[in-house]
């Protein structure tokens, strides 16, 4: 399986695949209160991928910072993930944090991974099997992390390429935050945008918790001249950037990366 996204029906029909690993990537959304009624529900057999604690660099002073390969490999093995695992990632908001985990796994060398389009809400709507969330221990997996450093960009790269016509930044934050007319959700962080960057709010590529059709996504990306350009995606802290990155993956062939520090870092370093 190489498709970036799969449907609830596909996942239901493959629940008994011997190599299948389902990852629950749900997080608390920064900008609004989420539905608490499904907080204790998971897809049957799912394993919790703890983005905020196990899979972020806790020593960093920025949220959601990409962990080093050793940490990622160790934590992934604890989830029972193997090099030949068939991984499907979902979250409880439809499409929110799951693309970040999809991107992380791809960046660490695991290609056989997809996002569940529509996430837990769509799974529930279809009446497919669920269970209460439960802490479990798994047989240690043999996953080996192979970090592709080209997929993770830092402040220095972004600053050095502000005027590079072959490299552009696409920001997934709302237009108000991007244009500096709305405040940032993080206290004491100014709003605004990286010079010469483009804005595709992540909500623009979604419809009712699912990705829009390929025709609609092509129309959205056609507003930016992406031909023969490297695309670096940014947002507030590197999470929703991956929603836009995955949307682009569905319709355009460009090389991609994520500015991991995103606006939280840029706004602190550049006045």
Q: What report would you give on this structure?
A:
With 271 residues, the protein is of the alpha/beta class. The chain has two domains: 5-147, Oxidized Rhodanese, domain 1; 150-269, 3-Layer(aba) Sandwich (Oxidized Rhodanese, domain 1). Helix content is 25%, strand content 17%. The protein contains nine helices and 14 strands. The strands form four sheets. The protein has a five-stranded parallel β-sheet with strand order 1-6-5-2-4. The longest helix has 10 residues, at 69-78. The radius of gyration is 18 Å and the shape is globular. The N and C termini lie far apart (45 Å). The model has no long low-confidence stretch (mean pLDDT 94).
Radius of gyration: 18 Å
Shape: globular
Low-confidence stretches: none
CATH superfamily heading of the largest domain: Rhodanese-like domain
Mean model confidence by pLDDT = 94
What name is given to the CATH topology of the largest domain?
Answer: Oxidized Rhodanese, domain 1
Written as H for each helix and E for each strand, in order along the chain, the element string is EHEEEHEHEHEEHEHEEEHEHEH
């Amino acid at each position: 399986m190489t498709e970036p996204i799969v449907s609830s029906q596909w996942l239901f029909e493959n629940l008994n695949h011997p190599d299948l690993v389902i990852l629950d990537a749900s997080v608390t959304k920064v900008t609004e209160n989420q539905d608490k009624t499904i907080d204790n529900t998971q897809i049957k057999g799912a394993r919790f991928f703890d983005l905020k604690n196990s899979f972020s660099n806790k020593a960093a002073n920025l949220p959601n910072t990409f962990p080093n390969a050793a940490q990622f490999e160790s934590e992934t093995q604890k989830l029972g993930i193997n090099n030949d695992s068939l991984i499907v990632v979902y979250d409880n908001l439809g499409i929110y944090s799951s693309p970040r985990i999809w991107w992380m796994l791809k960046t660490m060398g695991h290609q056989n991974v997809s996002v569940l389009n529509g996430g837990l809400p769509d799974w529930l709507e279809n009446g497919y099997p669920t269970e209460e969330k439960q802490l479990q221990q798994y047989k240690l997996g043999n996953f080996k992390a192979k970090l592709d450093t080209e997929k993770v960009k830092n402040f220095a790269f972004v600053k050095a390429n502000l005027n590079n016509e072959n490299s552009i930044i696409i920001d997934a934050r709302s237009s108000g935050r991007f244009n500096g007319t709305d405040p940032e959700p993080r206290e004491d962080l100014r709003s605004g945008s990286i010079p010469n960057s483009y804005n595709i709010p992540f909500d623009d590529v979604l419809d009712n918790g699912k990705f829009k059709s390929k025709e609609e996504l092509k129309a959205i990306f056609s507003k930016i001249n992406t031909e023969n350009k490297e695309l670096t995606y940014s947002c507030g802290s590197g999470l929703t950037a991956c929603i836009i990155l995955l949307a682009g993956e569905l319709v355009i062939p460009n090389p991609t990366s994520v500015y991991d520090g995103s606006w939280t870092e840029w706004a602190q370093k550049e006045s």
